[in-house]
Every structure is written in structure tokens, then in C-alpha cells.
Write a structure and sequence with these properties.
The chain is mostly helical and about 230 residues long. It is about 70% helix and about 0% strand.
């Protein structure tokens, strides 16, 4: 079961972060330059973790300004290397830093360094943006979304039986093959996305998908003739 979400609290945190960012963008560079003048070096891992914990503990704006000054240009450069254009990289960088402010309480120094945590957020934001570009928002008034006509009882019964057979066939597949089909056809991931998620070579993913489909065809030899 998913944890309950306090939506008003989340909304307030998001609004607060968006309000903080504009005031900090100018101050962050100055704050970071001042820190560099004093220390003559960038903050180390322990100092960065301490800054995040200060943000988490009480919404410390000075700590967030230092984080922003250190990471904002690096995150933007990283997003540009991932293929984002300048405007998109700027927007995503802002979104990443808002997320840092809003989710600072979730950061665990024992699990990852601050840089790893923040750049993971940036990578996920970039992936989400790419998916939105490939899948624009759908228009509910599009005729394609009109309700389907009622299915005749005999047809509905036949479909139910076929779905039961399909479920049994999927359950009979080796786990690695059924997992590939689930990701490819139920989560609509490309072969490349599956390979990245599971840490497998692309050729292995394609091979397992082909084998799984071949086994299903053995169970449904007449599938190609179904109307």
C-alpha cells in the first residue's frame, strides 16, 4: 500500500520553494563566492550534507542559497549534456532545485552523497520531460476516446476465456521473460528503457522479448486469425 500523502502540506511546501528560488538566485552566487573567498575550496561531502540537513531541519535559506550556488550551474550543465536545450535545461534546473528544497527531509547521508542524490533527481526530471515530449497531453474530446459500443454477451464470454488463457500463459513463462513483457507491454517501456532499468545489455532484452512472444504464440497458434 502506498503511504498516505498530505496533499495540502505538499502544496504548501511546493509554493514555499517556488517563492524562495527567485530571491535566492541572485543571493546564491554571492553567498557561494563569499564562502569560496573564506575557504578557497568548494564544500566537501560532509559540508554539503550538513547544508541539506539544515534545509530539512528548519528551511534554512542561507544553507539552500549555498546549495543553489554550488549545484545549480552544475545541474544545468549536466542537463545540457543529456541533450536538453538551454531553455529546457534552465527550467529543469529550477525544478530540480525546488525538489531539493521540498524533499530535503527525505535525504539520507547514509544512502548517498548529496551530489549523487541531486544528479539522480536531475536525471529523472530529464527522463520525465522526454516522456512528456513523446506523449503529449491527450484531448478528452477526441472522438478516439468515445466509449466503445457494448460487447455482445457471447463475445464478452469469449474474450473473458481468452484473457484467462493469456494470464495462464504469462504465468507459465520464465520469470525473466514475463518481466520483459510486463515492462514492454504493460508499462509501455522501450527495449532501451528496459535495458537501462534492469542493467542488462540491449541484445539480452530483445532476445528475451522474442522468446517470450514465441512461447505465447505456441499457446495461441490461431491468434493471427482472430478478428
Amino acid at each position: 500500500m502506498l503511504p498516505s500523502v498530505n496533499r495540502p502540506a505538499c502544496a504548501r511546501a511546493w509554493i514555499a520553494a517556488c517563492a524562495v528560488l527567485p530571491t535566492l538566485e541572485g543571493a546564491a552566487d554571492a553567498a557561494y563566492r563569499g564562502r569560496m573567498n573564506e575557504a578557497t575550496r568548494p564544500p566537501d561531502a560532509a559540508e554539503l550534507a550538513a547544508l541539506v540537513l539544515r534545509v530539512a531541519g528548519g528551511g534554512d535559506r542561507a544553507a539552500f542559497a549555498a546549495l543553489f550556488g554550488h549545484f545549480a550551474p552544475r545541474v544545468k550543465a549536466y542537463l545540457l549534456r543529456l541533450g536538453a536545450d538551454t531553455a529546457t535545461a534552465e527550467d529543469l534546473m529550477q525544478d530540480v532545485m525546488v525538489t531539493v528544497w521540498r524533499r530535503a527531509v527525505t535525504y539520507d547521508p547514509a544512502q548517498a552523497g548529496v551530489g549523487t542524490w541531486i544528479f539522480t533527481i536531475a536525471r529523472n526530471k530529464r527522463i520525465d520531460a522526454l516522456r512528456r515530449e513523446r506523449r503529449p497531453e491527450l484531448d478528452p474530446s477526441d472522438p478516439a476516446f468515445a466509449p466503445a459500443p457494448p460487447v455482445e454477451p457471447e463475445r464478452a464470454a469469449a474474450l473473458g476465456q481468452w484473457e484467462s488463457r493469456l494470464g495462464a500463459a504469462l504465468a507459465a513463462l520464465p520469470r525473466e521473460q514475463s518481466e520483459m513483457l510486463r515492462l514492454a507491454y504493460f508499462e509501455d517501456l522501450s527495449h532501451g528503457e528496459i535495458a537501462r532499468r534492469l542493467g542488462l545489455p540491449l541484445g539480452t532484452v530483445k532476445s528475451r522479448v522474442r522468446l517470450a512472444i514465441a512461447r505465447l504464440r505456441e499457446r495461441f497458434p490461431d491468434d493471427g486469425s482472430r478478428s
